[in-house]
Amino acid sequence: xxxxxxxxxxxxxxxxxxxxxxxxxxxxxxxxxxxxxxxxxxxxxxxxxxxxxxxxxxxxxxxxxxxxxxxxxxxxxxxxxxxxxxxxxxxxxxxxxxxxxxxxxxxxxxxxxxxxxxxxxxxxxxxxxxxxxxxxxxxxxxxxxxxxxxxxxxxxxxxxxxxxxxxxxxxxxxxxxxxxxxxxxxxxxxxxxxxxxxxxxxxxxxxxxxxxxxxxxxxxxxxxxxxxxxxxxxxxxxxxxxxxxxxxxxxxxxxxxxxxxxxxxxxxxxxxxxxxxxxxxxxxxxxxxxxxxxxxxxxxxxxxxxxxxx
Amino acid sequence: xxxxxxxxxxxxxxxxxxxxxxxxxxxxxxxxxxxxxxxxxxxxxxxxxxxxxxxxxxxxxxxxxxxxxxxxxxxxxxxxxxxxxxxxxxxxxxxxxxxxxxxxxxxxxxxxxxxxxxxxxxxxxxxxxxxxxxxxxxxxxxxxxxxxxxxxxxxxxxxxxxxxxxxxxxxxxxxxxxxxxxxxxxxxxxxxxxxxxxxxxxxxxxxxxxxxxxxxxxxxxxxxxxxxxxxxxxxxxxxxxxxxxxxxxxxxxxxxxxxxxxxxxxxxxxxxxxxxxxxxxxxxxxxxxxxxxxxxxxxxxxxxxxxxxxxxxxxxxxxxxxxxxxxxxxxxxxxxxxxxxxxxxxxxxxxxxxxxxxxxxxxxxxxxxxxxxxxxxxxxxxxxxxxxxxxxxxxxxxxxxxxxxxxxxxxxxxxxxxxxxxxxxxxxxxxxxxxxxxxxxxxxxxxxxxxxxxxxxxxxxxxxxxxxxxxxxxxxxxxxxxxxxxxxxxxxxxxxxxxxxxxxxxxxxxxxxxxxxxxxxxxxxxxxxxxxxxxxxxxxxxxxxxxxxxxxxxxxxxxxxxxxxxxxxxxxxxxxxxxxxxxxxxxxxxxxxxxxxxxxxxxxxxxxxxxxxxxxxxxxxxxxxxxxxxxxxxxxxxxxxxxxxxxxxxxxxxxxxxxxxxxxxxxxxxxxxxxxxxxxxxxxxxxxxxxxxxxxxxxxxxxxxxxxxxxxxxxxxxxxxxxxxxxxxxxxxxxxxxxxxxxxxxxxxxxxxxxxxxxxxxxxxxxxxxxxxxxxxxxxxxxxxxxxxxxxxxxxxxxxxxxxxxxxx
Amino acid sequence: xxxxxxxxxxxxxxxxxxxxxxxxxxxxxxxxxxxxxxxxxxxxxxxxxxxxxxxxxxxxxxxxxxxxxxxxxxxxxxxxxxxxxxxxxxxxxxxxxxxxxxxxxxxxxx
Lengths: 310, 809, 110
Prior knowledge:
Chain A: It comes from Palleronia pelagia. With 310 residues, chain A is an alpha+beta fold.
C-alpha cells in the first residue's frame, strides 16, 4: 500500500496503549505524531490503579472523558499543554473481569476541528451521555447532551441492544435520523459505535463520529473474531468497513467472500493474537499516520475487532 | 450483432449481463428496460441502507458509467407495455425495440394483504429503494407496524427501530420465521428483537387498517388496536408474470422455464424471481445467480443446466446471529442433534439422515454455519464425527453439555428462594464468605430454610461457585430432557420469568427439541400456574384426558361426567342426562363416589355433540378427567339433617363454584361434612371441612387412594367466608409450589404442614394468594364443553378424513 | 404410488395428531413440526391404545394408555418395550397432506 500523506488535520493527535504489569499500567505502544516531547514524557510514566487518567479508567472500570487537564488528576498536564493537547479519552479493555489494557486518545483543541468521541452509559434502562469531546461541534454537543437513547434506537442504542460494533453512514445527509440535523450541520458523516464491556454488568457505549474535514478516521473496519475458534488458523472476517480511498470494504455479495485477517499477521492479526489493542503508524498502519485496533471481548472471549485509520 | 432485450434490471439480469460482457463483449447489442428509474443495485442490502449502516452509493452494482462503458442501452423508468412475439419486438412506453433474443427478468411484486385500508397513505411494501426512502423519511418517534415476521419484515423492523421509531411486528404464525426456524430458535430471535425495543406479536391476524386518508391504526382480529403512522407490508412476494402471461408464454405459478432457462418460446428466456423451474419458485439470491450463469451460457450457445441447490438463510440484522440451512421436512430415518448453551444464548440443531447432514438451525453462534452448510451441500458422510458434529470443525474433542449451565447463567439478582426473598448474589456472597455447605448457607442467608423447594438450586449455586469442592447430591431430574429437578424448574420459571415452553427449553438447556411426554405436561402446568395471563395453554402438552376433556377408557371410548354442584341435581338435569345416554347409545351409566353421574363408553367423535346437548340443559363439564378441582362432596347439613351444625351443602356448592376450572398439580377433591359424624367423608379428602357448632375445622392432606391418610388440621375458623378464604389460599399455595403429579398430601410431606400453616396464617399472604387465584380464574374458569362444542372446534374430534367411504364412488 | 389428499396441514396443530379411517384400519397423522407430518397405524401394539391421542414430542409419540413410545419414522417401540406399528408414506404439497393410497389399501375398495 502506498504511503499517503493527507493534508487535512485529524481529530485525534495521539493514541497510546497502557497495559498492566505488576499492579501498574505501563506504556506498551503509542503513536505521537509530531508531539515528540509528549512522547518523551510518557515513556517514563506509569500508573497505579486509580492514578491518572488510565488508572482511573482501570479503577472505575469505565471509559473516562477528560476535557480539562488543569487542576485535574491528569499526570502529564505540563507536557500535554506544551504541545497543545487539551483533551483525552481513556477506554479500558476488559476480557471478563481481567483488565487487558487501557487505550488513551488525546485531542488538540481549536476552533476548526469537529468530530465527536462520546461515552454513553445506561441509567434506568436508557442510554444517557456520560461525557463527550466534540471539538468545535458545540451545537451538536448540546444536542447530544439532551438526547437519550432507548434500547435499539440510534447508533448508541443499537450498539447497546445488539452488543455488537456498528458502523453508520451518511449521518447528516438529509436522512431524518436521530440527531441528523445537527450532525449534518457539524459535517459529521460516519459513526462507529462500540460496546465497552466492563466487569459488573454496567453498559457503556463508545461512539466515534467522524467529519469529512477533520476525520477521526479515513478508514473504519469491523472484524468478526468469533470465527477464530473454527478455522484451521485463528482468523477474523472483515464484516463491515468503509474507506475514503477504497470505498466499501464489505463483501457486496454477502456470501462469504469477506477479507480475512490471520492471527499475528499485521496489526489486526496482532489484536487477534494478543487480545490487546494496538496503535501503529506509517507502513505498519497501511500507510496511514495512525491506526488504532481495539478488541471487544464478550463473555471473556474476543468477539470483534474494530480498527480505524487516519 | 444479435439484438438482446432484457426486461428488468435486477440482480439476476445484472449478473447475466456481467457474464455475457465478460465472455463475449461484442456478441450482443443490449437494451435494458427497467420500471424503476435506476439501474441494478444490490437489493438484498436495502435493509442496512434502511438502518443507516450502509449508504445507497455503496450498494449500487452498476452505475451509469458501467452501462455506458459496455454499450448497454438503458430504458430506465420506462414500463414495457407488451411483448409482440410474432414480430419479435418489445413495446415500451416510449417506443418499440426489436429483439433476436429476449430475457424476461421482471422479478416479483410484494404481496399486499387485501384487508380494508390497505390502500391508505402510509401503507407501503418493502421491495425497492423508493419504499426504503419512504421509511427513512418517517420522523424518529413515529409508530410503525410491520405486518409479516419473515426475513424481510424483521429486517425492516430492526432498521426502523434503529432509525428511532416505535416498532411492532405482527406475525400470523406461532413463531417468527417459521419456515426457516423451529420454535426454539424463533423464541431466541423474538427475545433478541424485544431486547432492541421491538414489540413482537405472534398469532396476530390483521383485520383492517384504519385511517382517514392516511394510516392511523391497525386493528387485529381479536380487537386490539395499534396506533400507527406507517404500516409496512412484508408478508411475501409473488412473481411478476403479467407481461409473460399477456404474451401467451406458458405460465404456472411463475414463468415456466427449462433447465436452460428457456420459456415456451425458444427466443424468449426468463431468469430470477419471476421463474418457475420444476414446480419450484426462487426468492434467495444464490439460485438467481446460478440461473444467470446458466442463461449466459445458453445465450452464448454453450451447454449448461440449472439445478436447484440447498439454500441457507441469514438475517441481516446486526448482532442477530442466526443461520438456517437445508431441509427439515418429513422423511423417515432422521435424527436430531440439539445443543443449547443458556448462558450464552446459543441454540444449535442439526438434522442427520443416513449419516448425512440434511439441515441445520443455529442461533447465537453461527460461526460454524458455513461449515455445516458445506456438509449439507456436499452430502458428506458424517458417521465418524457424529458424536461431536455439533461442536463444529474445531472441536472434535467434544464436551458434554454442562448440567450446571442454567444455574451458572443466572444473573446475581435472580431470586433463588422465594419464601425468604434471597437472590443468587446473596448466596454467592455467603459462600465466598465461608458458608460452604447447605446448612451454612441456610444459616447465613435463610435460603431454602422455609419450604425447601429451592434446595436443589441452592446446591447448584454452591457447586457453580465452589467448583469441584462441592458435590451436588443427585436430585431426581424431571426426565431425560434435563438434569434439573421439578423444584428447580419451578423456581427458575419464576425467577427467570420464563413464560413459554421454548423459553424454558432454551434457558434451562433442554437436550431435546421440544421435550417429551413426561416434561411437557409438567411445564405446561407450571407455566399456566405462574403466568396465567402471559402463557397460553398448550393442548398438545396435555394428556389425552385433558385435551379431550373426557376420560379415555381402555377401549378408546370416553366417559362424560357433568358437574353436579355439591352433589345436588334436579329432575330436569337427570332427564337431560337420561336423554343424552339414550341418544348416544351410552352402554354404562354409573353413580360415582364424588356424588355425580358418569356416562361411560361415548365415542370420541360424539363428544362435542353430547356436550352440546348437556350444555343446553345447563350442565357443564365436571372435570372428572383433570388435574384440577374434581368434586366437592357434601352431606345435607342443617337443611335436612337433625345433627347438622352448619349449611354444609351451601358451603360445598360455594366452594365448588369458586374453585371449578382451576388447574392444579394433581387432582383435588374436597368435601364438607355438616357435623363430626362426617357423612361426606371429609377427613380423607385433599381439603376436608368439618362443620362444628363453633365454626369450621379445615383439614388438608387426606387421601383415600393407594395411600389412605386422614387429613391434618390446617385451621379452625369461625365463619364460612373464612373457610372459603383459607381453602382458596391453600389451593393456590399448592398450585404455586407443588411439583406436578404430587397430591397435596405428598407435597405436604415435603414442605411440612408447619410451613404451610405459617404461610397461611399471615392474613396479607392469604389475601395475595386468593387474589392470584382469582386472577388465574379469570382466564381458566370457563366451561370446556361450551368452547369445544362449537362447529369449528368440534371438527377436531372427528377423523381428519374417512377413506373407507370412497369405496362407494 | 397414488397420493390421496386427506386434508389441510393446518388441520393438525403442531406437535398434535389427527386420525384418518382407512380400509386398512385407523391411521394416525402426526405433525411434528411446521412442515413435517408422519403417518402410522393408530393402534398401539401393546393394548391397542389410540396413538393419535398421545403426546407428540420430537419425532416420537407416547401412547396415552401405558406410555409406550414409538419412533414415528420407523414405527419401532422405543426403550425396553418391543413392538412395531405400521408406517405409511405421506407428503405435504401446497399446504395439503397427501397419503399414499396404495399403502393404506385403497385398492381393495375397487
